Sequence to fold (844 residues):
Amino acid sequence: MGSYILRRVLQVIPVFFGATLLIYFMVFAMPGDPIAALFGDRVPNPALLEALRAQYHLDEPFVVQYFYYIMGVFQLDFGTSFSGQPVIEVLQRTFPVTLRLAVMAIALSFLLAIVIGLFSAIFKGKLFDQVSLIVSLIFVSVPVFVICFLAQYTFGVQLGWFSPTVGADNGWLGLTLPAITLGVGIYATSMRLTRSSTIETLGQDWVRTAYSKGLSRGRVVPVHVLRNSLIPMVTDTATTFGILMVGATVTEGIFNVPGVGNTLYQAILRHEAPTVVSFVTVFVIAYVFVNLLVDLLYGLLDPRIRYVK
Amino acid sequence: MKKKAGIALGVLTAGALALTGCAPDGGGSGGGTDTEFAIAYNADGGHAAWVDAVVNSVAGTLDITAIGEPYPDFAGLREEVTDRVIESAFRTGWQADYPGLYNFLGPLYATGAGSNDGDYSNPEFDDLIAAGAAETDLDAANELYQQAQEVLLADLPVIPLWYSNVVGGYSENVDNVEFDWHSVAVFDQITKADGSVVTANGSEPQNPLIPTNTNEVGGGKILDAIFAGLVKYDTDGSAVNDVAESITVDSPTQLTVKLRQGLTFSNGEEVTSDNFIKAWNYGALASNQQLSSYFFEDIEGYNAEEDSELTGLVEVDPYTFTITLNKPAADFAQRLGYSAYFPLPDVAFDDMAAFGENPIGNGPYKLAAEGAWQHDVQIDLSVNEAYDGPRTPQNSGLQIVFYADQVGAYNDLLANQLDVLDAIPDSAFGTYEEELGDRAVNQPAAIFQSFTIPERLEHFEGEEGILRRQAISMAIDRQQITDVIFQGTRTPASDFTSPVIDGWTDSLEGAEVLEYNPERAAELWAEANEISPWE
Fold:
């Protein structure tokens, strides 16, 4: 077990180099001169342009620029944005916000998925199952921004239950509306997974055995069925969590959430290599760890799964 | 017409369009043998709709193939324009730094000027501009600039399209909201019944809050609130003394500035000549790499390549200094309200980076506290009691909220969560007047939009080029495009400047070339074809 975890953690090293190199190259290869673009439609003095390029090492070849970046990272210096802020500070500021949003959205989606999925399986083919199918199909097929705008206009402007945007009020409570929107937008897939996996479990011999032992449904379903149906759900939730940590760019943009999605998008538009690369690298590493966590969770849910070597 | 980076460009374009949610555009064509007329634009700026409308108008009227050519982002387009490798016409625009006609003309069309992207050159125009710059009487100078514009109307170095309007609104909680020539609300005069701070939209400043290093609206809006310059601009664009007691134009190359005595920064330091001279020298010094350093290039001693002192700035006494220019610029006094010319307190020079995070100014507002600038979120400003001047606030403070998406800002306005919005999103152009009623604002701003057809393009040089430019200009139905695409939030152009600028007129000789006239356009195009066929 211990050596398995160690091996998985060591895998982060090549992933780190691969990801930073690739992302750095992609930002480097973007057409256009980010420094000239800082001046809008005006053409700045060439001497000033040169000086600014030199400051960000943009006048150097790709390999040298990458080398500077990596050397900085080893000294825990992730570079600075064009606005002069250390990238590490930007990360520290935006990441918790996105994390809160992701946790809330996932919790909501997980809860909805389990409850509705379980009942849909138990009442397979009945009215409840069919209605939940239609509702989930709607949420899956309507684009995220439509749901966002609709929620913002209805609950923010018309009913006034929430502030239409988040801004400074980005604590747990302030993120309620975007979290609900996000959670509702992603619950459908997990719900369908729970449903099909529960139906499969319900047909197992040991479920029939449990019932024939005289156990009530209230005992069989939560203890015997649910736990065994959770494995695909956990995988799916972890994957979604990974995706959400990268920042729900569209949702963050519409609700003006100062999270990573928004910041990363702006940085890409400005060709800010240090910001883009550092952000993406953190995402990649976080993603790797979430996946590790999921693999370990499998063992807890199903004792037959063991990582010996 | 296709570039070498065609594939990469295509992929990135698709990505950029997906991210911004724009409809894809048929710009990727180009297999035909016909000569195409193309207008390049950046797809990240919301230009696709009007470019398509313009090229369709041109194509329909002149019976040629005309297309819009999207570039994924502004940086990519700008690089090709600057390097002079772009093989098509391209969109251009200009927002004035100060409300003067010269600012729209000199930097853009004078021979060799920095932003003369089309390499236009006409000695007659250059002479008129130089004469205007040397004329100390404003009306007489404007007369010369109008003559210079008539030269431009004959040559059409760019095809004027329209002036952008400021399209905004305000909440039910505030009164006395007026937008100035620069598309920003006049914050100091806003009143709010419940006495709370006024909230306004903004964007995260792209640079530390240092006046000479801020060249974009996000930071500019904040700096204008927390600093006071020698002059300030009224809503109609005229310059009114603020920190200055008087500014005397001694000659086209020499000004004398007298300051009002007893003014202080919010930390108690007195505002003296020295604060201006040191701040301007800091902004101009090459090694300081300030984005707005070019505002000092007309002052004697300026050197963009290496560090040198602005010898043209001389302190006479603590409240008087003289400015000597290295070339005639009679409108220099008019420029002095721009943020690059704000004074700095001595404490700024100790640690400019720290100062940029928590600036100390002499304006009507000040940072509410240390760390009032919450990055990517908002900045809180309170009234600066030390300020004494024409902009004394009528409210208890100002909160500028940074929005990533204007739709969110607009919904906040509708919910009365935001008091002032100066940028209604395109998506609400059809409904905002109904939803806001008399709280909606739509008035021309100091923004001129155009597209440039460089003379080096085939078929666009010499006599043939002039005929073709005139034909293209007259083939564009500006009125219809501003009505339909922009829902009346743009005003068709009748010159190269803006109606909010003092001296503007809509009756220039030759301005009929900017009116839609399909018959005349077709005739002119045919005439050009006799010189050299379009194929």
Summary: Chain A is about 75% helix and 0% strand. Chain A has two domains: 2-74, 88-301. Residues 84 and 267 of chain A are 13 Å apart (CA to CA).
